[in-house]
Design goal:
heterodimer; A: about 180 residues; alpha/beta; Rossmann fold; two-stranded antiparallel ribbon; 7 helices; about 40% helix; globular; B: about 180 residues; Beta Polymerase, domain 2; two-stranded parallel ribbon; 5 helices; about 25% helix; binds iron/sulfur cluster
Chain lengths: ~180, ~180
C-alpha cells in the first residue's frame, strides 16, 4: 500500500531479498506497530494541558503521528502525558493511574512544573514527578509549544523503534 | 467668570441607610474601594447583619460570591484599626435586585477563632467556609461539615497564615503517599 521499496530498504532491521520477500525480526515488527500507534493518557492539571489540547486539535494535529486516540482510561493507554502542576494530594492519584497502565508504557513530563515544580517551589507542590514515576522524555518550557510536545512524542517513537525499554522497566531491572 | 462649581451630592447608599437604622451598633467602619462598598462589622453581630442583608426585601443580597480571610499579622496599620484582631474574615456579596456588590469584613482575634457559619443562609458558603478553615484555621460554628477541602486530611497547619513558610514544613518530603485514599 503506502510502502515503497525505499521505505523497506531504509527501515532498520528489515531486509529485502529478491522479489517480494522481506525478512525481519518479530520485535522489529511489534515495535514498528507500537511506535506508530501510541495511545496517550492525558493527565492535564494546569495550563500546560491547554497546549496539549492544541496539539491534539486540528491545527497541530497529533494524529499525523498516530497518537490521536486519547484515552481517559489508563488501562487502554501506553503513553502518559503529565502536563501541569502536581500537588502532594494529587500525586497518589497520578501514581495509581501510572500503575494501572499496561506495560510497556511511556511517560512524558510536559513543562517546567511537571518536571521540576517550575516557579512553584511551595509547600504543596511536587518538585518533579520523576521522584515518584519514571519519566522517559522531559519537555522544558512554560508552557512548551505544541511543536515541543510533538517532538517529545517523536522522541518516544524513536526510543520504541530502537528497541529501548521504557524507563519504568529499566528501573525495575535495576532494583 | 462666575461659574459655580457644581457639587455633586452622592446619595447615601440604601444599604448603609438601612444598616444604620437597624444595626448601627454592629458597624465598625465603612469605606469604598474601587466602587465597592466595604463595611466592617463586629463579630458578635455578624450573623445578624448578614442575615439581614440577605433577607431584607429591599436589599436582597442573595448571592454570596466568596468567603475568605486575610491574615493581617504583618500589617500594623490594619491591626491598629480593629483592636489588633489578627484575621479579617471577608464576605463578598452581590444583589441581583440592586445590581450592586457589598464587601462585609469581620475582625477575628487569634485567641477566639470561631465565627458563626452562614452555610444555613447561603448553601454556597459550605465549601467556601471549608476553604477558609483549611487555609486560615477559622472555625465556623454550626457548619454542617467543617473538614479540610484543599489540603490532605492529615495536613498540619494552615498554609495561608503569614507565619507559615512558603516551602512548607517538610510536608513535601514527609507526606505519606501510600496511605492516601485514592
Ligand atoms: S510549566 Fe508553566 S504552563 Fe506548564 S503547568 Fe507549569 S506554569 Fe503552567
Amino acid at each position: 500500500m503506502g510502502l515503497t521499496n525505499t521505505d523497506i530498504q531504509s527501515a532498520q532491521g528489515v531486509e529485502q531479498t529478491d522479489g517480494n520477500i522481506i525478512t525481519t525480526t518479530i520485535d522489529k515488527v511489534i515495535n514498528w506497530g507500537r511506535k506508530n500507534s501510541l495511545w496517550p493518557m492525558p493527565f492535564g492539571t494546569a495550563c500546560c494541558a491547554i497546549e496539549m489540547m492544541a496539539t491534539l486539535a486540528s491545527k497541530f494535529d497529533l494524529s499525523r503521528f498516530g497518537s490521536e486516540a486519547i484515552r481517559f482510561s489508563p488501562r487502554q493507554s501506553d503513553l502518559l502525558i503529565v502536563s501541569g502542576r502536581i500537588s502532594i494530594k494529587m500525586m497518589p492519584v497520578l501514581k495509581r493511574i501510572y500503575d494501572q497502565m499496561p506495560d510497556p508504557k511511556w511517560v512524558i513530563s510536559m513543562g517546567a512544573c511537571a518536571s521540576c515544580g517550575g516557579v512553584f517551589d511551595t509547600y504543596t507542590l511536587i518538585q518533579g514527578v520523576d521522584q515518584f514515576i519514571p519519566v522517559d522524555v522531559y519537555i522544558p518550557g512554560c508552557p512548551p509549544r505544541p511543536e515541543d510536545l510533538i517532538d517529545a512524542v517523536l522522541q518516544v517513537q524513536e526510543k520504541i523503534a530502537s528497541g529501548a525499554s521504557p524507563k519504568g522497566v529499566e528501573h525495575l531491572l535495576e532494583t | 467668570m462666575n461659574e459655580e462649581k457644581e457639587v455633586e451630592v452622592q446619595p447615601k447608599p440604601l444599604v448603609l441607610q438601612k444598616l444604620e437604622e437597624h444595626h448601627a451598633d454592629a458597624l465598625l467602619s465603612q469605606d469604598e474601594t474601587r466602587g465597592t462598598l466595604v463595611i466592617v462589622v463586629r463579630k458578635e453581630q455578624a450573623y445578624a447583619v448578614l442575615e439581614y442583608l440577605k433577607t431584607d426585601p429591599e436589599l436582597a443580597y442573595t448571592f454570596l460570591v466568596d468567603v475568605t480571610a486575610v491574615d493581617n499579622s504583618q500589617m500594623e496599620s490594619e491591626l491598629m484599626q480593629f483592636d489588633y484582631a489578627r484575621f479579617m474574615v471577608v464576605y463578598q456579596l452581590y444583589s441581583y435586585q440592586g445590581q450592586c456588590r457589598l464587601r462585609v469584613k469581620v475582625p477575628v482575634h487569634e485567641n477566639d477563632l470561631s465565627i458563626p457559619s452562614v452555610a444555613g443562609l447561603w448553601r454556597g458558603a459550605n465549601w467556601l467556609e471549608r476553604e477558609t478553615y483549611d487555609m486560615f484555621g477559622i472555625n465556623f460554628d454550626g457548619h454542617p461539615d467543617l473538614r479540610r477541602i484543599l489540603m490532605p486530611d492529615d495536613f498540619d497547619g494552615h498554609p495561608l497564615r503569614k507565619d507559615y513558610p512558603l516551602r512548607g514544613r517538610g510536608e513535601r518530603e514527609s507526606f505519606n503517599f501510600d496511605k492516601q485514599n485514592v
